[in-house]
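Appendix C reproduces, verbatim, an entry submitted by the partner laboratory led by Prof. M.T., so that reviewers can inspect both the input and the predicted structure.
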Amino acid sequence: MATRVVSGVLAIAGAVAVGLGGYLPYAQDRSFEYRIFDTDSPHTILFLAIEPAAVAVAALVLGILLLVHNPFRITPGVLLGTGVQTTLLYVGLIGFYAQSEFGTDVRAGGWVGTLGGALIAAAGGLALAVRDAPAPATPTTPPGWYADPGAPERLRYWSGTAWTEHTHPVSQSPATPASAPPSTEARG
């Protein structure tokens, strides 16, 4: 459960970073408007596009779901795939804008977006690892003769999953129910 919570927190942190990475290019002029396309000169860019916004919303929702219950079968794959894709998108933007003169806010947005995509991918990988891990074996009491919970003067046979109707006095050596029929004294 703790790993699932960590995965949810990573997804939420990644969503915030992807959103912030989309905002930072517009922070320079201090007049941020929620824009899908920025066609004002000199920026003819598609920075805060539908894709990073959709990734941020999806990662936020899936992160919250991871915090409250076990993931759906598709959750780890969605987080991993969108995280890797978003990381690659922002790495490409960093490379493109490193050669331009758009300013430090645009480059910072690319780095923060890259970090966000990596966090989302890590959340998906962690959730996938937890989902595919084998469940720990439940310790069970092996089959055998044990003190009868209802009558300590008798032994009762435990099948490994439930008590049977086979009983035996404590003073005698019991045989297993499969090899010899034990006595079935009246229950008291």
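The two ends are 45 Å apart (CA to CA). Additional entries are available on request from the coordinating office.
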